[in-house]
Amino acid sequence: MTVKYITGDICHFTGDAIVNAANVTLLGGGGVDGAIHKAAGPELREWCFRFPERWPFHQHKRILTGEALVTPGFRLQAKYVIHTVGPIFPKGRDPAFPGERKMLDDASAIVALGKTLENCFDKAEKFGVKQIAFPAISCGVFGCDIGTFAEQLHATLGQDPRYDDLEVTVYLFDGVQYDMFDMAWKRLNG
Asked: Distance between CA 161 and CA 158 in Å, rounded?
């Protein structure tokens, strides 16, 4: 397994799959979610409408926290998009439904983030993905710090030999996020 991390636009990734830090509607939004939908073209949104709304949980939810769903990449260079919704940490908020912030304590959110990553890697294996790109899931408005994301990514990858041949690229928003991830990743890898 190889892991590299860079700053840049995840939409330009040329490997097998990119992970979308989606919102629960699957219909695009802000940040990386909106950028992926824009780059993939309107076909992605049309495809996402195929996923049923998850009533009675919420009228507009097509995916629940921690789940992973796969769509074609359409106009992206990646063959697949693996959509997932990371947990909202105590200091975060849900921009799709700002009045419905799900309160998780830090420990529960960390466990949920680990499960979210596992589900993404499970979908990658199912679809034969060998190169995958991740954004910093749950960081930003969802309130996770980048060091916690790095720790959960490291723990998830280290637990399963199925990931040994995987090439993972982590796309970070800016130099500050890169430096924080770099410091955490180096500490975790001795």
From this structure: 8
165 annotated active-site:
no
State the average pLDDT over residues 168-183.
97
Q: Determine the pLDDT at residue 93.
A: 67
Identify whether the C-beta of residue 86 lies closer than 8 Å to the C-beta of residue 143: no
d(CA 37, CA 60): 18
At which residue do the structure tokens 């921009």 appear?
95
User: Is 71's pLDDT higher than 70?
Assistant: yes
| pLDDT, tens digit (0-9, with 9 covering 90-100), for 103-120 | 678 899 999 999 999 999
Nearest to 37 by CA among 50, 18, 51, 63: 18
Distance CA 145, CA 43 (A): 33
Q: Which of 33, 105, 145, 174 is catalytic?
A: 33
DSSP code per residue over 100-161: ------HHHHHHHHHHHHHHHHHHHHHTT-SEEEE--TTBGGG-B-HHHHHHHHHHHHHT-G
CB 20 within 8 A of CB 82: yes
**H/E stretch holding 172:** strand 167-172
CA separation for the pair 168, 157 (Å, rounded) = 10
CATH no. of 2-188: 3.40.220.10
